[in-house]
Write a structure and sequence with these properties.
mainly alpha; EC 5.1.3.11; 6-hairpin_glycosidase_sf; single chain; cellobiose epimerase activity; isomerase; about 400 residues; about 55% helix; three-stranded antiparallel β-sheet; 12 strands
């Protein structure tokens, strides 16, 4: 598996180098299934920040100068077009020419901007990136942290006044699992490069308070998805992909915090979370996308990002437990990816297949949500875990 994953890691970046560089600056906001760019497509912070993280991570690992060049390009574009110099934070999206499009401050997008900036500094030691990451962190804590109930509010207007214009939720649903998962991820990465007491405080609070006390159900070990401001649960759906993703990301957070008692507690939790996802694992080795226990509805799509996360999550569970069946499930995840998700003709991965393994032949290869982050990170994690340095 190692050699195949190493090869795929290179293949992913070769695709993005070839097909997504916008000669006008930055990267195209959309490329279709036939690798045709849409020069008029809006550009999202999620896509651009994930590109920044991915190429920064690739450069840090390989020292390939081509990856550094594209990480530099992503950083420069975000700095010039996404940063809100007046109010702080980043825009959700800009038009193809860089003019702001959606200026609301979605915490999900802020988190990925922080993830990209912190990884770029980790890879390059560019002081401007560290300064930008520190400033963004302080803005999020000042503007979006809920000091009464803990956690972070989902979104704000451009000037950080209250809004109900959420991307991931709406109305009374002021907090979400997804946003908090993708905040603890960059906060943890920031703590790696800047071990500041305030960062440590918020990372620990998100792990011990937000996730362990509110987001993770203490009876099922699935994560709850949506909440009111005071953490009242307003959802019943199960997201198997997010469960398995969180199982390894939260353990990574505990590792970075380097607290033995917390690490032991998180290890136990991580294994329970990985174990409960097995109820959604199909005989073909792929996790069901989502399940609603109230209605019985199951979304049986086999998603590229879910397969990426289960590859890492089951391998992590194998490392933590020594149980061979987790290793076999990681290997079977990779076999599914190879067999059904890799587009050997046009490159990159299909977005998904259905339960009968028919791939999404018409779905974009690149858009606001189809980015190099999940699959390149999965390859990196497996490489790093099999051959740690």
């Amino acid at each position: 598996m190692l050699q195949e994953v190493q090869q795929e890691f290179r293949r992913i970046f070769q695709y993005w180098e070839t097909h997504d560089v916008d000669p006008r600056g930055g990267f195209y906001g959309r490329v279709d299934a036939q690798n045709r760019p849409d020069p008029a497509a809006d550009k999202s912070i999620v896509l651009n920040a994930r590109i920044l993280w991915s190429f920064s991570n690739a450069y840090r690992v390989t020292k390939n100068p081509a990856y550094r060049t594209l990480a530099d390009r992503a950083f420069a574009y975000i700095q010039q077009y996404f940063m809100d110099a007046k109010h702080g934070g980043v825009y959700w999206s800009v038009q193809a020419d860089g003019t702001p499009r959606v200026t609301t401050k979605q915490l999900y997008g802020q988190g990925f901007a922080l993830y990209g900036l912190s990884e770029y500094y980790r890879a390059t030691k560019q002081v401007e990136a560290l300064t930008a990451a520190q400033q963004l962190f302080r803005t999020l804590v000042e503007r979006a942290y809920d000091p009464k109930n803990g956690g972070f509010i989902e979104a704000f207007h451009q000037d950080w006044s209250n809004t109900d214009e959420y991307i991931l939720s709406k109305g009374e649903l002021r907090k979400s699992m997804n946003t908090h998962l993708h905040l603890i991820e960059p906060f943890t990465n920031l703590y790696r490069i800047w071990p500041d007491a305030s960062v440590q405080k918020h990372v620990r609070s998100m792990l011990e308070h937000d996730f362990m006390q509110h987001i993770i159900d203490p009876t099922t070990y699935h994560m709850r998805l949506f909440f009111t401001e005071d953490w009242q649960v307003r959802s019943s759906e199960v997201s198997y992909g997010h469960d398995i993703e969180a199982s390894w990301l939260l353990y990574e957070t505990a590792e970075v915090l380097n607290d033995k008692a917390l690490l032991a507690k998180t290890k136990e939790l991580s294994l329970k979370m990985a174990t409960v996802t097995l109820e959604g694992l199909n005989p073909d080795g792929a996790l069901t996308y989502e399940y609603n226990p109230e209605t019985g509805h199951r979304n049986e799509d086999r998603s590229w990002w879910v397969l990426s996360e289960q590859l890492v999550g089951y391998y992590n569970a194998y490392q933590l437990s020594g149980k061979q069946h987790f290793l076999e499930k990681a290997r079977k995840s990779w076999e599914f990816i190879k067999t059904y998700l890799l587009d050997t003709k046009n490159g990159e991965w299909y977005e998904k297949t259905d339960a009968a393994h028919h791939p999404s032949l018409k779905a974009d290869k690149i858009n606001a949500w189809k980015c190099p982050y999940h699959n390149s990170r999965a390859c990196y994690e497996i490489m790093h875990r099999i051959q740690p340095k």
